[in-house]
Amino acid sequence: MRIDKKMLKMLSMIALTVGLTAGAMADLLVIVHPENANKIDAKWVKNLYLGQTSEFNDGTDAVPLLLAEDNELTLLFLKEVVKQKPVQFKRLWSKSLFTGNGSPPQEITSESEMMSLVMNNPAMIGFIHQDNYTNDVRAVLRINMAD
Fold first, then answer.
1. Cys bridge to 142: 26, 31, 116, 132, which one at CB 3.0-4.6 A?
2. pLDDT of the residue at 11
3. Chain centroid, CA 10 distance in Å
4. What pLDDT, on the 0 to 100 scale, is given for residue 3?
5. Number of domains in the chain
6. Is residue 52 part of a domain?
7. Which domain holds residue 62?
8. Is 38 a member of any domain?
């Protein structure tokens, strides 16, 4: 079967439109300080929040921030990035605290506080809803809230 150029162009436009629409639904952003040039992917973020690493790739300290455990963004973040239910995550950090093997992510009360801390401290990493994003921070990962 042969597809002519016009049909191929139309299929490409449809694929691009679908891709842009899917990208528009990506509602959660993982953020860092704007000068943080480290390459950050979902696996690294997961390891940070599980206490398996505590440094960015360049060797500087990484301080994870977390909104309250019942926050919609926190629930999505734990499910999609950390791959844990809130009870599992809490249990992991309770055990780590008890055995002296680490400290849980610093709990933050609001997204505005999260933004302020991240934009003023290169060591911090957190997450916000995309509607609250400004160029005062650098977005390194997008998570689709429609999942």
1. 26
2. 47
3. 34
4. 53
5. 1
6. yes
7. 27-144
8. yes
Query: Does some domain include residue 12?
Result: no
Per-residue confidence (pLDDT) for residue 52, from 0 to 100:
93
Please give the average pLDDT of every successive group of 10 residues along the chain, which has 147 residues.
Answer: 52 44 63 96 96 95 94 93 93 81 90 96 96 95 78
Residue 116 CA to residue 61 CA, distance in Å, equals 18
What integer pLDDT is reported at residue 122 of this predicted model? 96
| Residue 39 pLDDT | 94
Specify the CATH number for the domain of residue 132. 3.40.190.10
Asked whether the beta carbons of 139 and 45 are under 8 A apart, the reply is no
DSSP-derived secondary structure for the chain: ----HHHHHHHHHHHHHHHHHHHHTEEEEEEE-TT------HHHHHHHHTTS--B-TTS-B-EEEEE-TTSHHHHHHIIIII---HHHHHHHHHHHHHHTS--PPEEES-HHHHHHHHHH-TTEEEEEEGGG--TTSEEEEEEETT-
